[in-house]
Inverse folding.
């Protein structure tokens, strides 16, 4: 994970090289724990989730303290589960490992738990795409990019996963306000990030 990733002025995440955004889902509530600088056990905020072949990015409607956005690499996500509680809204819960800067002490960084709550509209488009994408990313990287057991994989490896076929055959739920990107949403910009902890993006 990475707190407050680079965003364009319109709130869209600045993409990595080889990153393809699959969808955007507005009207969600997001919960995450262990946010640096927060006095609450969990940060809760309303906003929009972007899903790409590399990561999920939640962007808050308005800043919540120092919390503006939250980046979750798909290769660092685990324990994801779709929940349908009787007296609450449908949601996806899971865990995400931190993206530790090079030469930093990994022991100082802990795993986060998160929850995406679908409070406005259905989720019949988002949920299958999310689970299919994360499954495809894991399968592709186990097959084509194995890493040593004690080595943390590069979260950007997920960008090599083919997603075109998955998007073309995605089920569209008329009650789900998810927007599927048939074209990339920022074609006017050639700004790209090269690494998670790079301070600036580059023009390509």
């Amino acid at each position: 994970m990475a707190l407050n990733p680079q965003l364009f002025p319109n709130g869209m995440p600045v993409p990595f090289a080889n990153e393809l955004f699959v969808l955007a889902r507005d009207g969600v509530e997001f919960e995450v724990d262990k946010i640096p600088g927060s006095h609450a056990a969990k940060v809760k905020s309303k906003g929009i989730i972007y899903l790409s072949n590399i990561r999920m990015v939640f962007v808050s409607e308005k800043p919540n303290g120092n919390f503006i956005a939250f980046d979750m690499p798909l290769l660092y996500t685990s324990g994801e589960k779709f929940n349908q509680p009787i007296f609450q809204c449908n949601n996806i819960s899971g865990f995400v490992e931190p993206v530790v800067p090079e030469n930093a002490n990994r022991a100082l960084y802990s795993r986060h738990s998160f929850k995406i709550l679908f409070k406005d509209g259905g989720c019949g488009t988002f949920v299958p795409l999310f689970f299919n994408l994360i499954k495809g990313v894991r399968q592709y990287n186990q097959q084509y990019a194995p890493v040593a057991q004690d080595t943390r994989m590069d979260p950007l490896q997920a960008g090599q996963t083919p997603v075109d076929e998955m998007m073309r055959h995605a089920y569209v739920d008329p009650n789900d306000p998810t927007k599927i990107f048939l074209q990339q949403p920022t074609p006017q910009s050639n700004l790209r990030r090269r690494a998670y902890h790079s301070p600036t993006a580059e023009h390509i």
